[in-house]
Design a protein that fits this description.
The chain has nine helices and 26 strands. It is mainly beta and 400 residues long. It folds into two domains: 142 residues, Acid Proteases (Cathepsin D, subunit A, domain 1, Beta Barrel), CATH 2.40.70; 153 residues, Beta Barrel (Cathepsin D, subunit A, domain 1). Strands 3-4-9-5-8-7 form a six-stranded mixed beta barrel. A five-stranded mixed β-sheet has the order 13-15-24-16-23. Strand 10 and strand 11 form a beta hairpin. It is globular and about 55 Å long. It starts with 18 loop residues before the first helix and ends with a strand. About 16% of the residues have low confidence. The chain binds 2-acetamido-2-deoxy-beta-D-glucopyranose. The site of 2-acetamido-2-deoxy-beta-D-glucopyranose has 3 residues, from strand 6.
Length: 400
């Protein structure tokens, strides 16, 4: 639910991200049910180094480029476990040797955690990072972040080892919270965030820090990560490789602007219902944001969508479009890079806000400054966040 950092003062903080459901949809305890599993690769460069080491006794030296390349073979996969109604997805991460469940957020660039330095009144029930075991304080460094839903956190900074699905950052900036807003305190499933936007919007001062992805990028088999979110069940993130079993057909790539620090792209036309012949266009810039629950689109698109939902209306009390529980929702089809992707209507029937009413998974992006392709959209695709080309790009394919 967090997503889209506002630290760079880019967007209004109009409480747009799930304002109604986070207040009205009760959260229940969610137990992590899957263990992260690393992926084992046959390791070419390591073999090269071993070979040279073996012969070093005989006077051979290890070529430094081969030694560097030997590190560049990490890759791995980590589970992404949904909270109730898929409000956010949490992934187990080892931070300084301790496992925390973090919300992976492509809309922000700070890795921050509940910690032993967080007041107990704000952190009871959370797993806490203990920097005293292996952390090194970055003296004088601070951070402070605000998210689009009005939540925020701030604190101090350590360097420590972080492991995600078997991919290791030996020295990662770990931002330990000394203060968190009530939204974070209350969600005891969530022990912090792991930002995957561009490091240009990291909030650490006096010197910005790199995201986990930027830290490990030179060591990954490929400089990319892939996201496979699912409705109501565990999905996963892959770092350093694309899992071809997770999609069908081909991957369509679209170029990314990093100007605002987000995975920003341009969406094309759209249609509502069974016809995938799209028309019109989705105006404005769009971002792919795993940390935002819903799909936020221009008013004209939202109006056209709910015109096809019987009983739908904008409900100012709930802060968004709602409709009767009995309504069947149409699909939403969107053209990105020349390929039409379909979000099933069942995904857009997001969550009950009363015994008779549902809150919609598509809502207005007016006032945000971007359209946000959050989890409602991402659940329908396998998404590749790719820096293997001269400019970053996003790839989308149909989930298998
Ligand atoms: C963090 O930023 C918020 C909003 O700008 C501000 O209200 C708060 O005082 C700041 N906290 C710290 C510890 O600097």
């Amino acid at each position: 639910m967090y997503g889209l950092t506002t630290a760079a003062a880019l967007v209004a903080t109009a409480g747009y991200v799930l304002a109604a459901p986070s207040a009205l949809v009760p959260r229940k305890t969610f137990q992590v049910s899957q263990i992260a599993k690393g992926k084992v690769f046959i390791n070419g460069p390591t073999q090269v180094v071993k070979t040279h080491q073996k012969y070093a006794k005989l006077g051979a030296t290890v070529p430094s480029d081969a030694a560097a390349a030997a590190a560049a073979v990490q890759s791995g996969s980590v589970a992404a476990n949904p909270e109730q109604y898929d409000e956010s997805y949490l992934c187990p991460v080892s931070v300084g040797g301790q496992t925390l469940n973090l919300d992976f957020d492509t809309g922000s660039a700070d890795l921050w955690v509940f910690s032993t330095v967080t007041p107990s009144s704000e952190s009871t029930g959370h797993a806490r990072y203990n920097p005293s075991t292996s952390g090194t304080l970055k003296s004088g460094y601070k951070w402070n972040i605000s998210y689009g839903d009005g939540s925020g956190a701030s604190g101090t900074v350590y360097a420590d080892k972080v492991v995600v699905g078997g991919v290791t950052a030996t020295s990662q900036a770990v931002e330990a919270a000394t203060s968190v807003s009530a939204q974070f305190t209350q969600d005891t499933n969530n022990d912090g965030l792991l930002g995957l936007a561009f490091s240009s919007i990291n909030t650490v001062t006096p010197q910005q820090q790199t995201t986990f992805f930027d830290t490990v990028k030179p060591t990954l088999a490929k400089p990319l990560f892939a996201v496979d979110l699912k409705k109501g069940t565990a999905g996963s993130y892959q770092f350093g490789y694309i899992d071809s079993s997770k999609y069908t057909g081909s991957i369509t790539y679209t170029s990314v602007s990093t100007a605002n620090g987000f995975w920003q792209f341009t969406a094309g036309g759209y249609s509502v219902g069974t016809s995938t012949t799209t028309s019109g266009s989705i105006s404005g810039a769009s971002i792919a944001d795993t940390g935002t629950t819903l799909l936020y689109l221009p008013d004209a698109v939202v109006t056209a969508y709910y015109a096809k939902v019987s009983g739908a209306k904008y409900d100012s009390t709930q802060g968004g479009y709602t409709f009767p529980s009995s309504s069947t929702l149409p699909n939403f089809n969107v053209n990105i890079g020349g390929t039409v992707f379909t979000v099933p209507g069942s995904y857009i029937k997001f969550a009950p806000v009363s015994s008779t009413t549902y809150f919609g998974g598509i809502q207005s992006s007016a006032g945000i400054g971007f359209n946000i392709f959050g989890d409602i959209f991402l659940k329908a695709v396998y998404a590749i966040f790719d820096e293997s080309q001269s400019t970053p790009r996003l790839g989308f394919a149909k989930q298998s």
